[in-house]
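Quick illustration, no need to memorize.
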Amino acid sequence: MDVSVVLCTFNRCGLLGTALDSLAASVMPDGITWEILVVDNNSKDRTRDVVAEFSRRYPERFRYLFEARAGKSFALNAGIAASKGAVVAFVDDDVTVASDWLENLTAPLRRESLAGTGGRVVPQWTSDPPKWLARNSWAIAGPLVSFDRGEKYRPLEESPVGTNMAFARRVFEQYGGFRVDLGPTPDSEIRNEDSEFARRLFRAEERLYYVPQAVVYHPVTENRLTKRYFQTWWFDKARSEIREAGVPKEAGRMFQGIPLPMFRRLLRWILQWLITVNPRNRFECKLRAWYTAGVITESHRRFKVHGVRAEVAVGDGPS
């Protein structure tokens, strides 16, 4: 098998069919063998039935795998283990792909000595953003899943997005799978499972390339255009970064595992939020406060569990 597509899903049977329809329409060159492996992460809806219908319609193309352990990383790792392709591509259950997406994403891995590729993720807006959110805000790309680094095929210097990336199978054999303490679960939106894996490859000086012609379309649904969703996403983003790499080694004095400057930063952003009038700027201040609160929360949790802070630096937060 040349290429495997791994799609992990949990209780999204209503969206899953649309994603699978677009994947089924993929066009690959003659002689390239490929499959689509749908990993059901213990769904309680009609997910199994939806995949069974596609397996009936395309018996040589679709396969179903059940993974009972809750958590996307468990599902991803199960999909990698069960897949047959020399190249493994990943896509989510709520997107649609262009018909040439799979070929464009995986062709560089078949012809060059690369570790991985990442493509463009285009948000599909069905309405205007609320007045407190600007389309060009730094706060949008993560929560609404957008990734666009221009029109040029070039080396990646940052992690690709989990819904549009592919890797040579050898990298999983060399560097392991996705960390199971990261990635969303039914009870948590902690992520970074994809970016942590890519950073592992960068540290090993592996080559990843950006492929702008590999396009995935991600819907901007109403449930994501809420303040609560954005606040929770940035709170859990901070927790993900601390969980991945630890408390910054340059953080200074600590209290119960929490860098003391974080308390000052939290107070600063809360005050800034209270006095800012412009609704978009005001909300961005609030998001920075939520991010800082996530750093504090996860730093304290690590201290209680491990008793020490990590010796690895992490990012300073949203910018």
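The longest helix spans residues 279-306.
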